[in-house]
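Here is the promised in-class demo. Please do not try to memorize the tokens; focus on the logic of going from shape to residues.
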């Protein structure tokens, strides 16, 4: 059976300066939350927002939801102080903006270690610049604390001088590079945000595209996006039914000393069994999270 799978279908950004939003997040069915100190916070509110998100993380009042805090860049006036505060906040992860090299990851890890961060705190990397995408492989293998890539598609589109389109063709090279590097190093990878909150149909289509491309989930900017995102990135009932058949048939074949098995006319190989086991493990983890 697959090792434990952590659901990250829906990962919702919450502005760190908005205490009401941080409070509301306790009731939202997102798999994970990102308390944001960077883009969503004005310069004159940065320090207050830092205090807000640290207090929220320390409260441990978000159930089993995974909590990440996005710091400001290390080159900014607030970045190093953010990292030091996040290190002992009780958050599960720190999300680092505009990671462009393995050295960027090493610098954050050194600051975390120096500030007393527990070994369990992971690093998430925003992949949102052309240089970062070209260095994705080196970044992915930079340190064992690094566990996850977040695609920053808005910044990538800006830096590429590209356009947001329904099929996201201008983004495919960057998305593919991020995906390949993540999988090569055993990382989780999250798709970028969808900007038009009112366009429910377009959002759902982009979620489906992200699933087909291999993403584990999607970053979100509004609570209304959580439910459809959870639905798309969860294994469907038909997928789970087939997964159960595959695992059962394979175990039965092994017990009989057979090396070949077919299910509903399909030849089943080890790779299909691995995929089926992961789908079943993900469904079980989702049920556990929802029951919390």
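The designed amino acids, position by position:
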């Amino acid at each position: 059976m697959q090792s434990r799978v952590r659901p990250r279908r829906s990962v919702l950004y919450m502005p760190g300066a908005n205490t009401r939003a941080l409070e509301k997040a306790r009731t939202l069915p997102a798999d994970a939350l990102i308390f944001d100190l960077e883009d969503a916070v004005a310069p004159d509110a940065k320090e207050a927002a830092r205090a807000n998100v640290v207090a929220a993380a320390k409260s441990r009042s978000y159930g089993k939801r995974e909590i990440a805090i996005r710091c400001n860049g290390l080159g900014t006036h607030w970045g190093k102080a953010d990292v030091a505060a996040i290190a002992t906040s009780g958050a599960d992860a720190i999300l680092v903006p505009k990671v462009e090299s393995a050295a960027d990851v090493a610098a954050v890890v050194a600051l975390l270690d120096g500030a007393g961060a527990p070994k369990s705190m992971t690093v998430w990397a925003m992949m949102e610049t052309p240089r970062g995408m070209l260095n994705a492989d080196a970044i992915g293998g930079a340190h064992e604390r690094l566990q996850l890539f977040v695609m920053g598609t808005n910044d990538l589109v800006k830096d590429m001088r590209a356009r947001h389109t329904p099929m996201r063709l201008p983004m495919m090279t960057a998305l593919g590079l991020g995906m390949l590097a993540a999988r090569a190093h055993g990382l989780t990878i999250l798709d970028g945000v969808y900007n038009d909150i009112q366009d429910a149909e377009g959002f759902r289509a982009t979620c489906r595209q992200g699933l087909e491309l291999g993403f584990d989930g999607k970053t979100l900017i509004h609570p209304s996006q959580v439910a459809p995102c959870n639905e798309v990135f969860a294994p469907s009932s038909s997928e789970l039914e087939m997964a159960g058949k595959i695992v059962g048939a394979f175990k039965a074949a092994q017990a009989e000393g057979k090396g070949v098995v077919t299910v509903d006319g399909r030849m089943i190989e080890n790779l299909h069994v691995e995929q089926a086991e992961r789908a079943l493990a993900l469904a079980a983890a989702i049920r556990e999270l929802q029951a919390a």
